[in-house]
Amino acid sequence: MKHKIALEMVKAKLPEKRYKHSKRVAETAVKMAEIFKGDKNKCFLAGILHDFSKYDELGEMYQYVTKYKLDPELLSYKSAVLHGPIAAVKMREEYRVEDEEIYQAIMNHTSGRSHMSLNEKIIYVADYIEPKRSQPGVEAIRSLIFDDRNLDVAVYEITKANMQHLLSKDQPIYHKTLECLNYYNMIKE
Ligand code: DGI
Ligand code: FE
Ligand code: FE
């Protein structure tokens, strides 16, 4: 898919704020691709497209879970986690975005998972550190990326912060989120 088409598609579908966030994630991901020798084209596209289904109707999302045999466990997590997998299957099945790495990067951008590919990790981190994000601790993660250049530690710290936040609010933890935490805990450094 051409970048211009992707930008137009997302601009037409999402509210202005979410469109701008998507653009910042794409730009941050491209910057990271330069540092970590990732694929700038894949990073831009996955960044622009990652939140495509953020505001899809829940009923429609449920139909896609059945139709494309996605993990039924996802239904318990509503749009918070589902919007990644739904955007990924829509891009593959309806928009002919056939690249497996872009598919996985969009699919897993909220939960992460173990054994992520380079470009998949870049999207996971770029979503968390794009310039308008201001959650506590984000500056330390930016420094891990742009100063220390340690992608795996950044993935670990983001997953840990996410999980601490979810637990503090008594939210259930999706298995991929937990697997991501454990995997990057063990391989970091
Ligand atoms: O779509 P964004 O706002 O840009 O960011 P995101 O796709 O990372 O969405 C994060 C949301 O996903 C946030 O509300 C927390 C939620 N989430 C991620 N992992 C889990 C989770 N929610 C639950 N309950 N369990 C998880 O394991
Ligand atoms: Fe998202
Ligand atoms: Fe996002």
The total beta strand count reads 0
Instruction: List the quaternary state of the chains.
Output: single chain
Query: DSSP helix count?
Result: 10
Identify low-pLDDT runs: none
From the 3D coordinates, which CATH architecture of the domain at 3-134 would you assign? Orthogonal Bundle
As a percent range, the share of strand residues is under 5%
CA-based shape = globular
- The run of helices and strands is HHHHHHHHHH
**Superfamily (CATH H level) name of the domain at 3-134:** Hypothetical protein af1432
The gyration radius over C-alpha positions equals 16 Å
Mean pLDDT over all positions: 97
Instruction: Kindly identify the CATH topology of the domain at 3-134.
Output: Hypothetical protein af1432
The distinct bound ligands, ions and cofactors come out as:
2'-deoxyguanosine-5'-diphosphate, fe (iii) ion
The biggest beta sheet reads:
none
* CATH class division of the domain at 3-134: Mainly Alpha
Q: What level of helicity do the residues show?
A: 55-70%
Q: Which structural category do the helix and sheet elements fall into?
A: mainly alpha
Q: Whole-Å distance between the termini? A: 36 Å
Question: Which descriptors apply to this entry?
Answer:
globular; Hypothetical protein af1432; binds fe (iii) ion; 189 residues; mainly alpha; binds 2'-deoxyguanosine-5'-diphosphate; 0% strand
